[in-house]
Amino acid sequence: MPHSFPALSAEQKKELSDIALRIVAPGKGILAADESVGSMAKRLSQIGVENTEENRRLYRQVLFSADDRVKKCIGGVIFFHETLYQKDDNGVPFVRTIQDKGIVVGIKVDKGVVPLAGTDGETTTQGLDGLSERCAQYKKDGADFAKWRCVLKISERTPSALAILENANVLARYASICQQNGIVPIVEPEILPDGDHDLKRCQYVTEKVLAAVYKALSDHHVYLEGTLLKPNMVTPGHACPIKYSPEEIAMATVTALRRTVPPAVPGVTFLSGGQSEEEASLNLNAINRCPLPRPWALTFSYGRALQASALNAWRGQQDNAGAATEEFIKRAEVNGLAAQGKYEGSGEDGGAAARSLYIANHAY
Amino acid sequence: MAYQFPALTSEQKKELSEIAQRIVAHGKGILAADESVGTMGNRLQRIKVENTEENRRQFREILFTVDTSINQSIGGVILFHETLYQKDSQGKLFRNILKEKGIVVGIKLDQGAAPLAGTNKETTIQGLDGLSQRCAQYKRDGADFGKWRAVLRIDNQCPSSLAIQENANALARYASICQQNGLVPIVEPEVIPDGDHDLEHCQYVTEKVLAAVYKALNDHHVYLEGTLLKPNMVTAGHACTKKYTPEQVAMATVTALHRTVPAAVPGICFLSGGMSEEDATLNLNAINLCPLPKPWKLSFSYGRALQASALAAWGGKAANKKATQEAFMKRAVANCQAAQGQYVHTGSSGTASTQSLFTASYTY
């Protein structure tokens, strides 16, 4: 380890760091609209809509036709491959619509989970083959950041040392390749909420996983200032009988991050992982009010927790498109406030907003 | 990695974290007065004083009996084993004198270097045998923190991955054992300044070393909030022909730290490593003025850079006590100001204060 062979030039570093900072500028977070075809099938079947390419296009159009109100609360949108090349009813590419709002375009680049033999149902994530060429193409096509999701779960014997090591390593390879192509990697080591473990156990596991991730990123010479982290919040398992307040979740989450995420990382964009829309906002808000010092931006990268009400309002009917878009804007604005610790709570319990969005063993 | 077996109770954690914060509160730093017998020999030889136990006692007495206001600049003093049990001329134990001034007493715990076979003259550090019992005894005898110095060097093929791994692991074992016995471990992975490498190279190496140290601390379940870090500043090698300003040293140093040191660590107390008294102060000041985010206290743990002028003023003569204490107090106050970014360089400095204190291949 005697010599450094710089992975990036100063200009490359600056470009990456500028992109990352734009995405997590104060009050802004990410819309994760990168559901794969299979995941969209689940979403659409819940509202009785057929899973066709046209319906998926129409649905994303509902989200992307949001007006300028989203400019102050959405810093980035993650696209699925298909969506990156789709257009709205007027023939305007979705990528252009998003970019014209000053929002950074991102692309999901992993290719799903595969099993790790010899483990208790654990997985790693594939997608490294030809990744550099794919990133270069996506960059030309308008993407400035990417996302790759790894999955770990808590049980009697998991996550195992192998699962932690392998997933951390694959995240680091992905991150390194992204940066070589001018793309900011969002690093997502999700620990699923499945199980009956308590808050402390999730905190412990999250700390171990994140320590491994940052060691791997260091080993792979990844430029931390040009990355973002997308972790789970620290929460109890879904089947845990103990209930915790947003403040307890916030304290456990921020403590875990303070012990593992170097201050050089510009932003932490939490996944919502099946929390209801309101829960996801309340927890994010509590996190931003946590009294512990927090050197990174703490914001959102929500899929379900930004879209549930919108999806429900739309139900596949074009007449409902406007109302559905409004639902999305509403959640986006709420989360923009939560990312600054300024959300006062909804008061009334919106139907879709409070319903838990938990789907057991969410693989995608 | 399935279960957590808590290493510390909440009371133990609270005690450790309070001790650590007390040491670095309000710009305070550490006097490293833990020179071994051999090293004190080097110091005393420079001022032509015989290296006897009595002479060592006399010099330490002068430092520790300085006016109580020293406690505004010095939060902790590291002692060598012999000194922990020495008394002043009235028969009062040094450790009680320090405690009465509100200064936390620390103890050097490592037992020197041992070679790593198969490397280019690299070393690890010994001292783990019976360490728990020694810590328990030191705690009873008034110590509240420990210190352990690992040494890495930059050279052909150095530091090797073995040296980094082994030293990080030993530091983590030491830290874990300290905490079990109520002592806050100061973790010191010194990358020595010997060599002709430039600033960038030192930064690269320092980042790799610190990443390994924090991974090891995490693996060993060390409670970061109850530790302190004592790293080298990032500087060019002593034989490097290129000169750098304090601002450059500061930027390289804080960049390296913010890529590797979690925010949970309450304080970073730099070693002076052969820098002159004035350079050590100027660099610390620049570090505290560096515009990057700095979620930990950035302070000092200086040996030579706090004592050089005092030693020169003393010259082994009791009559010089007042001058010695003034010289020491002056450096302590200067460094406390620097730890808050408030040091104003007065312009004129005594010869001892600008003289480089570099001793080639400094092992102690």
From TrEMBL, chain A:
Q: Name one GO biological process term.
A: glycolytic process
Where mainly located? Answer: cytoplasm
Give the transmembrane ranges. Answer: none
Cite the SUPFAM superfamilies for this sequence.
Answer: Aldolase
Q: Where in the cell is it found?
A: Cytoplasm, Cytoskeleton, Microtubule organizing center, Centrosome, Centriolar satellite
Q: Which InterPro entries match?
A: Aldolase_I_AS, Aldolase_TIM, FBA_I
According to its UniProt record, which reaction does this protein catalyse? beta-D-fructose 1-phosphate = D-glyceraldehyde + dihydroxyacetone phosphate; beta-D-fructose 1,6-bisphosphate = D-glyceraldehyde 3-phosphate + dihydroxyacetone phosphate
Key words of the record: Glycolysis, Lyase, Schiff base
Q: In which pathway does it act?
A: Carbohydrate biosynthesis; gluconeogenesis; Carbohydrate metabolism; fructose metabolism; Carbohydrate degradation; glycolysis; D-glyceraldehyde 3-phosphate and glycerone phosphate from D-glucose: step 4/4
GO CC terms, sorted: centriolar satellite
Supply the EC number(s): 4.1.2.13
GO MF annotation list:
fructose-bisphosphate aldolase activity
The keyword Aminoacyl-tRNA synthetase belongs to this UniProt entry's keyword annotation: no
The record's listing under Pfam families reads: Glycolytic (PF00274)
**Subunit and interaction comment:** Homotetramer. Interacts with BBS1, BBS2, BBS4 and BBS7. Forms a ternary complex with G6PD and TP53; this interaction is direct.
Function, as annotated: Catalyzes the aldol cleavage of fructose 1,6-biphosphate to form two triosephosphates dihydroxyacetone phosphate and D-glyceraldehyde 3-phosphate in glycolysis as well as the reverse stereospecific aldol addition reaction in gluconeogenesis. In fructolysis, metabolizes fructose 1-phosphate derived from the phosphorylation of dietary fructose by fructokinase into dihydroxyacetone phosphate and D-glyceraldehyde.
Hey, which family's this protein in? Belongs to the class I fructose-bisphosphate aldolase family.
Q: Which NCBIfam families match?
A: FrucBisAld_I
Q: What is this protein called?
A: Fructose-bisphosphate aldolase
Q: What is the lineage of its organism?
A: Eukaryota, Metazoa, Chordata, Craniata, Vertebrata
TrEMBL record, chain B:
Note one Pfam family from the annotation. Answer: Glycolytic
Q: Which UniProt keywords apply?
A: Glycolysis, Lyase, Schiff base
Segment forming the signal sequence: none
Keyword Oxidoreductase assigned:
no
User: Biological process GO annotation list?
Assistant: fructose 1,6-bisphosphate metabolic process; fructose catabolic process to hydroxyacetone phosphate and glyceraldehyde-3-phosphate; glycolytic process; negative regulation of pentose-phosphate shunt; vacuolar proton-transporting V-type ATPase complex assembly
Q: Which CDD domains match?
A: FBP_aldolase_I_a (cd00948)
State where the protein is found.
Cytoplasm, Cytoskeleton, Microtubule organizing center, Centrosome, Centriolar satellite
Entry GO CC = centriolar satellite; cytosol
Q: PROSITE patterns recorded for this chain?
A: ALDOLASE_CLASS_I
Q: Cite the EC number.
A: 4.1.2.13
The pathway noted for it is: Carbohydrate degradation; glycolysis; D-glyceraldehyde 3-phosphate and glycerone phosphate from D-glucose: step 4/4; Carbohydrate metabolism; fructose metabolism; Carbohydrate biosynthesis; gluconeogenesis
Please list the reactions this protein catalyses: beta-D-fructose 1,6-bisphosphate = D-glyceraldehyde 3-phosphate + dihydroxyacetone phosphate; beta-D-fructose 1-phosphate = D-glyceraldehyde + dihydroxyacetone phosphate
Q: Which Gene3D superfamilies match?
A: Aldolase class I
What InterPro entries is this protein classified in?
Aldolase_I_AS (IPR029768), Aldolase_TIM (IPR013785), FBA_I (IPR000741)
GO MF terms listed in the record are: ATPase binding; cytoskeletal protein binding; fructose binding; fructose-1-phosphate aldolase activity; fructose-bisphosphate aldolase activity; identical protein binding; molecular adaptor activity
Q: Membrane-crossing residues?
A: none
First-level EC class = lyase
Share what the entry says about its subunit structure, partners included. Answer: Homotetramer. Interacts with BBS1, BBS2, BBS4 and BBS7. Forms a ternary complex with G6PD and TP53; this interaction is direct.
Q: Of which family is this protein a member?
A: Belongs to the class I fructose-bisphosphate aldolase family.
What's this protein's function?
Catalyzes the aldol cleavage of fructose 1,6-biphosphate to form two triosephosphates dihydroxyacetone phosphate and D-glyceraldehyde 3-phosphate in glycolysis as well as the reverse stereospecific aldol addition reaction in gluconeogenesis. In fructolysis, metabolizes fructose 1-phosphate derived from the phosphorylation of dietary fructose by fructokinase into dihydroxyacetone phosphate and D-glyceraldehyde.
| NCBIfam families recorded | FrucBisAld_I
The name under which this protein is listed is: Fructose-bisphosphate aldolase
Task: List the source organism.
Answer: Mustela putorius furo
Instruction: Give the source lineage, highest ranks first.
Output: Eukaryota, Metazoa, Chordata, Craniata, Vertebrata
